[in-house]
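About this split. The held-out portion is used to measure sequence recovery: a designer receives only the structure tokens and must propose an amino acid at every position. Recovery is the fraction of positions where the proposal matches the reference. Here is one held-out target exactly as it appears in the evaluation file.
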């Protein structure tokens, strides 16, 4: 496999894993509530790309795809944990920095935030 293709494949795999973990976390969260899940699907569709972009940015900053994973150790594990915590923190702080924060704060469903947090720890 070409040397430049492996980081691209790993990046795309990580982004798909993030989307699947958010989706599964929301399904688990709303498993017992019945029809409540359909009310949050539109919010999930809006916030999922933002969540993925926050994590992609942090993964790039932490240079997760420029390492030799054959000999991964504690330093790589700390980079993975740091990138995930940074991505989650960026996702939680980003609405505060936006100009529409006070309009959006009451429209964003609170259980969606809990699904995002739980999906971060699932990764």
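Reference sequence for scoring:
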């Amino acid at each position: 496999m070409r040397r430049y293709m492996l980081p691209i494949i790993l990046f795309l795999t990580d982004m798909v894993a993030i989307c699947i973990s958010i989706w599964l976390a929301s399904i688990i969260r709303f498993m017992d509530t019945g029809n409540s899940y359909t009310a949050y699907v539109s919010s999930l569709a809006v916030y999922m790309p933002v969540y993925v972009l926050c994590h992609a940015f942090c993964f790039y900053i932490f240079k997760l795809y420029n390492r030799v994973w054959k000999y991964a150790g504690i330093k790589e594990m700390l980079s993975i944990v740091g990138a995930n915590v940074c991505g989650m923190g960026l996702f939680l702080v980003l609405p505060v920095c936006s100009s529409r924060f006070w309009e959006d704060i009451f429209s964003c469903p609170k259980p969606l935030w809990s699904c995002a947090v739980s999906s971060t720890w699932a990764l």
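Annotator remark: Residues 5-122 form one domain.
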